[in-house]
């Protein structure tokens, strides 16, 4: 029996394509978490915010970030972009691999005058037709210079007027209980690491996407696969992604913290080399 077709429009019904990220513990981004991540004393002083892989579902706090310029929300469970509508200084937005089901969420980004970089791939809203998806995004956000890590051309912007669908209204929201829009209120605690099962799913391509979002150089193919033959595929992926998790966390440390890491790594390296010499 042939599979049932899915709605094609960019509206509120989820389309085909990348499935939503597996839900972990629901997370609300809090004021304290934002200030800690951005190393700021007030929300209006936050310019850059990196919350990659933090299981976030509620980003309402973004309404109180008037001067934010760069936001990294990749690898979370975000589905509602309405809070970003207030971020008038936003120039770069990374939303790869979230739960954004409808391209109508772009309605909330249309009035951001400085938005030039958007990474939205690997969300359910991307659908099964890459061309139609890209054309729709560019028709509604014609000021973009880069979409999904690919430069936007003048030819694409012209074609988007023909092939893209204009979004004129926000997505419909499912109401619950007292008629308020459904939202996830959860513990203020935050998670800065991924579960082990999520780490094991990363490939070289995924690893380099993460590193690019963090402003790091990509890992060469020969370096990525330079493990001993005895290692299983599972262990190889785990080893590589533990390394990337460590690299990610080092960006949150100050000079004192980095010095502690440096000393610890030095001692660990000496111990490993001593063990290797004994085994030889």
Describe this structure in words.
This protein has helices at 31-38, 130-140, 154-163, 196-199, 204-213, 221-224, 233-250, 255-279; strands at residues 27-28, 48-50, 56-58, 70-72, 92-94, 117-119, 146-147, 150-151, 175-176, 180-181. It starts with 26 loop residues before the first strand and ends with a helix. Strand 7 and strand 8 (150-151) form a beta hairpin. By secondary structure, the chain is α/β, with parallel strands linked by helices. The protein has eight helices and ten strands.
Descriptive key words:
280 residues; 9% strand; globular; 8 helices; six-stranded mixed sheet; alpha/beta
Question: Which helices and strands appear, and what pairs or packs with what?
Answer:
Elements: E1 27-28, H1 31-38, E2 48-50, E3 56-58, E4 70-72, E5 92-94, E6 117-119, H2 130-140, E7 146-147, E8 150-151, H3 154-163, E9 175-176, E10 180-181, H4 196-199, H5 204-213, H6 221-224, H7 233-250, H8 255-279
Parallel strand pairs: 1-3, 2-4, 4-5, 5-6, 6-7
Antiparallel strand pairs: 7-8, 9-10
Helix pairs in contact: 2-3
């Amino acid at each position: 029996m042939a599979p049932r077709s899915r709605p094609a429009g960019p509206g509120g019904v989820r389309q085909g394509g990348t499935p939503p990220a597996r839900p972990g513990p629901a997370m609300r981004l809090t004021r304290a978490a934002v200030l800690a991540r951005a190393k700021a004393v007030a929300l209006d002083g936050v310019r850059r915010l990196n919350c990659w892989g933090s299981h976030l579902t509620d980003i309402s706090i973004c309404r109180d970030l008037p001067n934010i310029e760069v936001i990294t929300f990749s690898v979370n469970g975000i589905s509602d972009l309405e809070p970003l509508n207030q971020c008038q200084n936003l120039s770069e937005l990374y939303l790869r691999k979230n739960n954004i089901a409808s391209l109508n969420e772009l309605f909330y980004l249309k009035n951001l005058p400085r938005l030039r970089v958007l990474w939205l791939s690997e969300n359910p809203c991307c659908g099964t037709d890459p061309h139609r998806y890209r054309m729709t995004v560019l028709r509604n956000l014609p000021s973009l210079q880069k979409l999904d890590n690919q430069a936007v051309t003048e030819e694409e912007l012209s074609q988007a007027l023909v092939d893209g669908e204009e979004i004129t209204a926000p997505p419909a929201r499912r109401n619950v209980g007292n008629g308020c829009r459904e939202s996830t209120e959860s513990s203020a605690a935050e998670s800065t690491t991924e579960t082990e099962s999520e780490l094991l799913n990363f490939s070289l391509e995924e690893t380099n996407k993460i590193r690019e979002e963090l402003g790091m150089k990509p890992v060469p193919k020969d370096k990525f696969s330079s493990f001993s033959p005895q290692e299983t595929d599972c262990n190889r992926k785990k080893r590589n992604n533990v390394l990337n998790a460590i690299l990610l966390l080092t960006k949150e440390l100050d000079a004192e913290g980095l010095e502690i890491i440096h000393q610890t790594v030095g001692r660990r390296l000496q111990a490993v080399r001593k063990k290797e010499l004994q085994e030889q």
